Amino acid sequence: QVQLVESGGGLVQPGESLRLSCAASGSIFSINTMGWYRQAPGKERELVAAITSGGNTNYADSVKGRFTISKDNAKNTVYLQMSSLKPEDTAVYYCNADILTLTSYSRTGYLDFWGQGTLVTVSS
Hints:
Layout: E1 2-7, E2 10-12, E3 18-26, E4 28-39, E5 46-52, E6 57-59, E7 67-72, E8 77-82, E9 91-101, E10 111-114, E11 118-122
Parallel strand pairs: 2-11
Antiparallel strand pairs: 1-3, 3-8, 4-5, 4-9, 5-6, 7-8, 9-10, 9-11
């Protein structure tokens, strides 16, 4: 009933910028937190940035000062503005959201949803 659709990934050179978008759609009652994770080849998936329903944000130390997470509540969309990109930022980026659906609202509570992932490659 709920899906997360990501867009904005691609190939960029070091120092350039990129903005990722993730739109949640479906039978949504409310959204608690939304965030971005990334997974580089041979490495574990890690949290990049997260934003709560109240607008509080949290960033990984490696991206603090370079990345900015934001959201549009009316559109159920979260963004990740990435600036001063480095080769070590290369990874598949996944959108994540804790969502109370119209079904889970009365059954199980919040559910964890993931996007399909979008590849960001930073290389010269």
